[in-house]
Amino acid sequence: MYLRMLLYLGILASISSCGSQKKTVVIRDVTVQEAKLSDVPVLIDALVGASRLNDPILDTHELSYTSKLPYQDVVEFYQSEMERAGWLELGSFVGDQALLVFDKPYTLCVVTIQRLRTKVAIHIISGTKKA
Known about the structure:
Layout: H1 2-36, E1 47-55, E2 60-67, H2 71-84, E3 88-94, E4 97-104, E5 107-115, E6 120-128
Antiparallel strand pairs: 1-2, 2-6, 3-4, 4-5, 5-6
């Protein structure tokens, strides 16, 4: 009985540790991307969907997430908060989808915002300007 209980506890511990390792890997990738996009604001209710590691040749950083906030609120958030973070808006298109282009001395950032059925999808791409 005692050995069976120890066996069950061992199996339970190994199963739970496997799941936490997978979560750690995902969190680490997202944390790396967020650190490289530290000067780009992200909504507080962000549900991160994808984070692509940088392309060393193109020197780009990408992050995609969703929000339950209304589409227009998300657009206005990026238009005001990017400026507050030191970005200059070069241009924008706001319709069924939004495309916002921002500039810093050595970096360009494109924010796309898309309406989905019950949420809004945000995709951020930032990269070093090439001369």
